[in-house]
TrEMBL record, chain A:
One example GO MF annotation: NADH dehydrogenase (ubiquinone) activity
Record-given protein name: Unannotated protein
SMART domains in the record: Molybdop_Fe4S4 (SM00926), NADH-G_4Fe-4S_3 (SM00929)
2Fe-2S ferredoxin-type domain: residues covered: 8-90
Domain 4Fe-4S Mo/W bis-MGD-type as annotated: residue spans: 230-286
Coiled-coil residue windows: none
Provenance organism: freshwater metagenome
Keywords: 2Fe-2S, 4Fe-4S, Iron, Iron-sulfur, Metal-binding, NAD, Quinone, Translocase
Domain 4Fe-4S His(Cys)3-ligated-type, residue spans: 92-131
GO CC annotations, alphabetized: membrane
UniProtKB/TrEMBL annotation, chain B:
Pfam families in UniProt: Complex1_51K, NADH_4Fe-4S, SLBB
Matches recorded under Gene3D superfamilies: 3.10.20.600, 6.10.250.1450, NADH-ubiquinone oxidoreductase 51kDa subunit, NADH-ubiquinone oxidoreductase 51kDa subunit, iron-sulphur binding domain
NCBIfam families attached to this UniProt entry: nuoF_fam, PRK13596.1
Upper taxonomic lineage: unclassified sequences, metagenomes, ecological metagenomes
Family annotation (SUPFAM superfamilies): Nqo1 FMN-binding domain-like, Nqo1 middle domain-like, Nqo1C-terminal domain-like
Entry keyword annotation includes Iron-sulfur: yes
Name of this protein: Unannotated protein
Alphabetized InterPro entries for the sequence: NADH-UbQ_OxRdtase_51kDa_CS (IPR001949), NADH-UbQ_OxRdtase_suF (IPR011537), Nuo51_FMN-bd (IPR011538), Nuo51_FMN-bd_sf (IPR037225), Nuop51_4Fe4S-bd (IPR019575), Nuop51_4Fe4S-bd_sf (IPR037207), Soluble_ligand-bd (IPR019554)
TrEMBL record, chain C:
Keywords: 2Fe-2S, Iron, Iron-sulfur, Metal-binding
Cofactor: [2Fe-2S] cluster
Family: Belongs to the complex I 24 kDa subunit family.
InterPro entries to which the protein is assigned, alphabetical: NuoE-like (IPR002023), NuoE_dom (IPR042128), NuoE_N (IPR041921), Thioredoxin-like_sf (IPR036249)
The name this protein goes by in its record: Unannotated protein
Molecular function as annotated in GO: 2 iron, 2 sulfur cluster binding; metal ion binding; NADH dehydrogenase activity
Region (Disordered): 188-208
Length: 783, 426, 208
């Protein structure tokens, strides 16, 4: 916290003990401060109080005046002079709670032995503390059809439900996805969906997690384990840059589930369904287990580690080499790659941006992002938020939840500069500044912001020339803070680690000799290369032109970039050492493949978009896989040099010792936007983004999760639809010289020049199918 | 002097009483003219001075409720009239609206002026097609005549079958287009009611009483009734009486007096039990014939004035059957929001069914009372409380009758004997 | 079913009654019943679209209120009050009699689609007990025989008029339109009050 906030404290007496809590604190939470646990079901600190279950009744008097009946402690804020008697000191409260518990149980099935929640069930636990030992109910229990799927990944058992409405309130209040509601009335009241609209919320797993009984269960975990068989490890989510605190539950070396952790300053208690339910890739059958080396016959064959390391070292030494590290590396691993490039390969040819990127972006990252710290808290305080090349719900879902929280709480104004209005921005009631793809820069410049405003810039801002220049200028002229929010979990860490051609670790500009000396001293090197390194695209081009002969590649999908064909050609041509967890387009072309540990198998940290370290330990302890860092150290040794980074801990220590850069920052060059192309009848400008749930590599094998992905559609505007005679559901063929995709049309709010399709969804892998993703002219015909 | 005092019902016996012509003929819409010329605060004061209290059951002083609306807050204010009349036994507002809807319309105009509201809603239960027609027509006619639309808009909102919507916060949720479930209070409607704006929610009869108060003055209204329960009100007599019907009288009249005026208990029978104000008010017996039917009198005798729905049951009626049926009603109407009411009514019905069928035990009676203790005052709103009233009060007065079901192995009563058409060959 | 332009205009006018559109859910559901006879999926989806809500939010509301039917009811929907007072005074016998006479159970519809039967809660006409409602019009002071005659008259296509209501009984769909707030011009028909409503006034005038 940068400013001191003055909070009014109120002192109350609970069960004879005094406690002082901030004004507005609910009695139930004031009691928690004293370690007094009042039983509850509907209460949840992040949901609006509802007082529905009545389990938390206590006796209250204020300045000598007693309430005539027990009050729900989850709905009453503390007041001066308040004396509270919980079940511990009030016979009335105790009987009231026992009475409610009895009523909750009369219709609850006795299926705890087969219930997933058994062993970690608030109802079970509180029935033990507050329930009767013998039932008095001799009547007929309410029955419902046993679990019904309310989506492909969530099942609902209405018999177990205690109607606390946490799930429906979460969906309405937190996610703004009111796809599940309470239906019917009275004793027949039940949670449900509209029959034709499943619970397709990106956040549905939170409803499962906060269900205080076994009514909502996840299809992937159902009947798989007992809570007491699981070993839980605090972890950090590797799926995006939101930086969720997580818990990973492992049984016998296998991750069985992941839950949202509790970090009030980041994800509060939520996460997205991808973070929760996409983890099978770690245990996929095709995981690489042994090093592979290409033999003289040209086949990749299993090899011993010494053999493989020797081959790698030899190949990397034999030619000028460059490093490509994907955006999913941990901070420490990225640091390892960064140091390896400079120490072992004597080059600044390193780039973590295995995606569409630009020189303008590289400038922008060095000039505006590295070392900066805009935070979630800043969103909480912002007077308005501008989104540029960024769809929070799709690309950083916890940022979306935070924006939504502030929107619901105080109508935070959100403006998006985009070609298409998204579902997420609609939920935020955001102002939609509609621009043609490629023409975003002018609209950025036209925004009126203040020093209390925040500009959230996505990685796609690099896809239109001039946008980042305009963002920097807007920030300069208004004082608005910039936050750069890439999709991938490792990008911010890689930036800080200097895994990019113009920066050394700690934001030291390569071009700055003092900065080079700084890092060279730290590393015990006589000097560091001083030429600004190439970008990913330039590296591939340099291989194809013969300027580079070897590549060290870790966690890269070459088809994520702007020029997949060039990338694949380069990988065929160069000597490639690849660090990977599973076979890929890179491993199949590599000369040496070295298997590495997945995130759950190693320790480390990610820096989320705030630059905040999200540390984690290995959740699976008996993995034989080594971290990238460890393997890089071994290759370096084999090459006759040393990274001096034997462990993640030593890397973390070294990173911490670098300190902030107080020298001059890289100056942002001015880039201008390109002319809007001329369009005629069947021509559109393509735009796209990746959906949260799509064909991403880390979602492989998660069919239940994939079942809740949004529909693959091509979006065009009403006026274009009219002129083309297209209505919803008609098939549109989108073509470029490279290829085509055919998608069902959806007529929505989008710029007339634009056509939108998901970038990497089933049936719509634009970079592969079309060789384009944003700003390119495409031909569209109705078929 | 007559014990009755028709004010609201004074002209119901004219065939066209529901028309704007009839209403105007009897001085209708003069009160609103008079009130609109007054300072809003003076109107509130006048209603306060009259002693008018809420006729929906709780008896809260109407003028005081209006006075709670924050003034000068630059927010929209709303008036919402509760015409959801659904409490078993209650049948006063529907005949009122059938016979004279304009008095409510005029009351709304006056109340809106007093609380500085531009928009009023009447939330009427949905199961009364013809009353909806009459009220809708009255509103149309009042617009045509310029009484509405010049500063006050009035919208009729038709419910769809949910007793709980008579609870004011559930009514507001329902009116906003949500499931009709009660809201947390605070905030109270006066601060954050409809659309989270300051809102007055009043019963039909309360608002309808206002034009006469404006016309005749607070002293006139004060002159009727008892010390703390002023004015006249509609008492609805039903059940085993020779002549059921509506009786408008000053507050404080007794059941004995009403029975004497109307022709008494069904000939040849005797009073067994009755409700003073609907099924949610603990039942009374013969011992309460002389209880003054005002807020204080009924309360002192252990029940509530409620809606003044006097449901009379004679000695042919099985109290267990009556209570079971009411309990089934509460189970059917429980909104489901809170545990005690939702689950409690589910269980209560099962125990009572067993008891009525002679399958219960004496221990079940104790269980029943203990359950009621776990529901009363533990539920979210008064519906759960109301569900326990018939049970606890009937066991208090008729415990032996419950026991006799157990010993008799079933209901000792002949249900035919209590029908209205017994002996009529039905 | 498809809604006509006129229907859509009416629905729009219903929405415009309210300061906030969501308030129009209930009258719109009544309106759907006036066109379809019950609340079907199409109706829920249309309302959701008109009010920019999720269908789940509309069905959550529709399933809360008992007057919204999930399946077709008869042209004449008959409700017998079986709350305590009416039940005791004959409502139970009337309901049993009608079930037997029509050959349907609670919530059943006769094969010819003319009459459906439901036991209902207190309908605010206790001084006219036992009470039967048809399309939510009052049929006061019923007996088993009068109720049977009533449903027979419905099945023969010439239903008896309500005791306190319009001169002729309107159909279920027509009544639903009234509940949606549409004026059918029949407000002036029928008595202003039944005798019990006037009893106190009469006694008072007699000077008692």
């Amino acid at each position: 916290m940068t400013t001191t906030e003055i909070v009014d404290m109120i002192t109350v007496i609970i069960d004879g003990f005094e406690v002082s809590v901030p004004k507005g604190t609910l009695v139930i939470r004031a009691a928690e401060q004293l370690g007094i646990q009042i039983p509850r079901f509907c209460d949840h600190p992040l949901l609006d109080p509802v007082g529905a279950c009545r389990q938390c009744l206590v006796d209250i008097e204020i300045n000598g005046r007693a309430f005539p009946k027990p009050q729900a402690s989850c709905t009453i804020p503390v007041e001066p002079g308040m004396i509270v008697k919980t079940q511990l000191t009030s016979v009335v409260a105790d009987k009231a709670q026992k009475g409610v518990m009895e009523l909750l149980l009369i219709n609850h099935p006795l299926d705890c032995p087969v219930c997933d929640k058994g062993g970690e069930c608030p109802l079970q636990n509180q029935a033990m503390s507050t329930g009767r030992s013998q039932t008095r109910f001799e009547g007929v229990k309410r029955t419902f059809e046993k679990p019904i799927n309310i989506s492909s990944q969530v099942l609902l058992d209405r018999e177990r439900c205690v109607l606390c409405a946490r799930c429906t309130r979460f969906s309405a209040q937190i996610a703004s996805d009111p796809f599940i509601t309470l239906n019917e009335r009275g004793a027949l009241q039940q949670v449900g969906i509209y029959e034709k609209a499943p619970f397709k919320s990106y956040f549905s797993g939170n409803a499962v997690q906060i269900c205080p009984v076994g009514a909502l269960t996840g299809a992937s975990y159902r009947f798989r384990a007992r809570p007491f068989d699981l070993v839980s490890t605090p972890s950090a989510c590797e799926h995006c840059a939101s930086g969720c605190d997580m818990r990973t539950d492992v049984r016998r070396g296998k991750t069985l589930r992941r839950l949202a952790g509790d970090d009030a300053s980041v994800n509060e208690e939520w996460n997205c369904d991808k973070g929760r339910w996409a983890f099978k890739y770690v245990t996929a059958v095709d995981r690489l287990t042994h090093p592979l080396v290409r033999n003289d016959a040209g086949d990749l064959v299993e090899a011993s580690w010494p053999e493989a390391l020797a081959a790698a070292a030899k190949g990397l030494k034999a030619a000028s080499a460059a490093v490509l590290v994907g955006g999913r590396a941990t901070h420490e691993d990225a640091y390892g790659y960064s140091k390896f490039a400079r120490i072992a390969l004597s080059t600044n040819d390193i780039d973590f941006r295995s995606r569409i990127s630009s020189d303008e972006e590289r400038d922008f990252l060095a000039a505006r992002v590295v070392g900066s710290s805009t935070t979630y808290r800043d969103i909480d305080r912002a007077d308005q938020v501008l989104l540029v090349g960024f769809e929070p719900e799709e690309e950083s879902p916890i940022v979306f939840l935070r924006l939504n929280k502030q929107f619901r709480k105080r109508a935070l104004k959100v403006t998006t500069i985009s070609s298409k209005l998204s579902i997420g921005v609609e939920k935020l009631n955001g102002e939609f500044v509609k621009v043609a793809p490629g023409q975003e820069a002018a609209s950025v410049s036209a925004q009126a912001l203040t020093a209390q405003s925040i500009i959230l810039v996505g990685e796609r801002a690099s896809e239109s020339a001039g946008v980042l220049t305009a963002v920097a200028a807007l920030s300069d002229s208004t004082g608005a803070k910039i936050a750069w929010i890439p999709r991938r979990a490792g990008e911010r860490g890689a930036l800080e680690a200097g895994a990019i051609g113009n920066l050394l670790p700690g934001g030291r500009p390569v071009a700055d000799s003092a900065a080079r000396v700084d890092i060279a001293t730290l590393w015990g090197a006589s000097s560091l290369p001083s030429t600004i390194g190439r970008s990913s695209d330039e590296i591939y081009a340099a291989v194809n032109s013969g300027a580079i002969g070897a590549l060290l590649v870790g966690g890269v999908d070459p088809l994520d970039g702007a020029n997949g064909e060039s990338a694949l050609a380069a990988l065929e041509k160069a000597f490639v050492v690849c660090l990977e967890i599973a076979p890929s387009e890179v491993t199949s072309r590599a000369d040496v493949v070295l298997p590495v540990a997945a995130v759950t198998e190693k320790s480390g940290s990610f820096l989320n978009w705030e630059g905040r370290a999200r540390k984690f330990d290995a959740a699976v302890h008996d993995s034989l896989n080594r971290s990238d860092l460890r393997i890089l150290s071994m290759i370096a040794e084999e090459m006759g040099t040393s990274l001096n980074l034997s462990t993640v801990t030593s890397a973390a220590k070294e990173i911490a010792s670098i300190g902030a850069w107080d020298g001059a920052r890289v100056q942002m060059q001015q880039y201008s936007s390109t002319q809007s192309p001329a369009l005629n009848g069947d021509r559109f400008i393509l735009t796209s983004w990746r959906r949260l749930l799509d064909l991403g590599t880390l979602q492989k094998g998660e069919e239940n999760l994939a079942g809740t992905a949004r529909q693959t559609v091509a979006v065009i505007s009403p006026s274009r639809a009219l002129s083309m005679g297209v209505s919803d559901g008609d098939l549109l063929k989108i073509s470029t010289v490279q290829g085509s995709v055919t998608l069902a049309a959806l007529v929505e709010d989008i710029h007339d020049d634009a056509i939108w399709a998901p970038r990497n969804s089933r049936g719509s892998q634009l970079l592969v199918n079309l060789g384009a993703a944003h700003g390119a002219v495409v031909t569209v015909v109705k078929i | 002097m007559t014990k009755l005092a028709p004010v609201l019902s004074a002209h119901w016996d004219e065939k066209d009483s529901f028309t704007i012509e009839a209403y105007t003929r009897h001085g209708g819409y003069k009160a609103s003219q008079k009130a609109l010329a007054m300072d809003p605060d003076a109107v509130i004061q006048l209603v306060k001075d009259s002693g008018l209290r809420g006729r929906g059951g709780a008896g809260f002083p109407t003028g005081m409720k209006w006075g709670f609306i924050p003034q000068g807050d630059n927010k929209d204010h709303y008036l919402v009239v509760n015409a959801d009349e659904s409490e078993p036994g209650t049948c006063k507002d529907m005949p009122l609206l059938m016979a004279n809807p304009h008095v409510l319309v005029e009351g709304c105009i006056i109340a809106c002026h007093a609380i500085r509201a531009k928009h009023a809603f009447i939330y009427i239960r949905g199961e009364v097609t013809h009353v909806v027609r009459r009220l809708n027509q009255a509103i149309e006619d009042a617009y045509k005549a310029g009484h509405l639309g010049n500063g006050v808009d009035l919208v009729l909102h038709v419910g769809a079958g949910a007793y709980i919507c008579g609870e004011e916060t559930a009514l507001l949720d329902s009116l906003e287009g949500f499931r009709g479930q009660p809201r947390l209070r605070p905030p109270f409607p006066a601060i954050a009611g409809l659309y989270a704006r300051p809102t007055v929610v009043n019963n039909v009869e309360s608002i309808s009483a206002v034009p006469a108060i404006i016309n005749n003055g607070p002293e006139w209204y004060q002159s009727m009734g008892t010390e703390k329960s002023k004015g006249t009100t509609l008492y609805s007599l039903s059940g085993h009486v020779n002549n059921p019907g509506q009786f408008e009288a000053p507050l404080g009249i007794t059941l004995r007096e009403i029975l004497e005026l109307s022709g008494g208990i069904r000939t040849g029978h005797t009073l067994k039990f009755w409700t003073p104000g609907g099924s949610s008010t603990p039942i009374f017996t013969q011992d309460h014939l002389d209880t003054p039917l005002d807020y204080e009198g009924v309360s002192a005798a252990g029940s509530m004035l409620g809606t003044k729905a006097l449901q009379i049951f004679d000695e042919t009626t099985c109290v267990v059957r009556a209570v079971l049926r009411w309990t089934e009603f509460y189970k059917h109407e429980s909104c489901g929001k809170c545990t005690p009411c939702r689950e409690g009514t589910w269980w209560l019905v099962q125990i009572l069914r067993d008891l009525e069928a002679g399958k219960g035990t004496e221990a079940d009676l104790a269980k029943l009372l203990d359950l009621c203790d776990n529901i009363l005052g533990r539920s979210f709103c008064a519906l759960g409380d109301g569900a326990t009233s018939p049970i606890t009060s009937s066991i208090k007065y008729f415990r032996d009758e419950y026991i006799s079901h157990i010993t008799h192995g079933g209901c000792p009563f002949d249900p035919v004997a209590s029908t209205l058409f017994v002996g009529a060959g039905a | 079913m498809a809604y006509s332009q006129e229907d859509l205009a009416i629905m729009d006018s219903i929405i415009k009654r309210y300061p906030r559109s969501r308030s129009a859910i209930m009258p719109l559901l009544h309106f759907v019943q006036s066109r379809v006879g019950f609340v079907n999926g199409d109706g829920i989806e249309l309302i959701a679209k008109l009010l920019t809500l999720e269908a789940a939010e509309v069905s959550a509301v529709a399933t809360f209120y008992t007057q919204y039917k999930r399946k077709p009811v008869g042209e004449y929907h008959v409700g017998v009050c079986t709350n305590t007072l009416c039940a005791v005074m004959g409502g139970d016998a009337i309901f049993a009699g009608l079930k037997e006479h029509l050959g349907v159970e609670n919530d059943g519809v006769t094969a010819d689609g003319k009459v459906s039967l439901e036991h209902i809660e207190c309908n605010a006409a206790c001084d006219y007990a036992p009470v039967v409602m048809a399309n939510w019009e009052f049929y006061d002071n019923q007996t088993v025989e009068s109720a049977k005659d009533l449903v027979d008259s419905m099945r023969s296509g010439n239903p008896k008029p309500p005791t306190r209501g319009p001169n002729t009984l309107v159909t279920w769909k027509e009544a639903s339109a009234v509940l949606a707030g549409i004026n059918d011009g029949k407000a002036h028909e029928g008595v202003q009050a039944g005798e019990p409503s006037l009893l106190g006034l009469k006694i008072s005038k007699e000077g008692k």
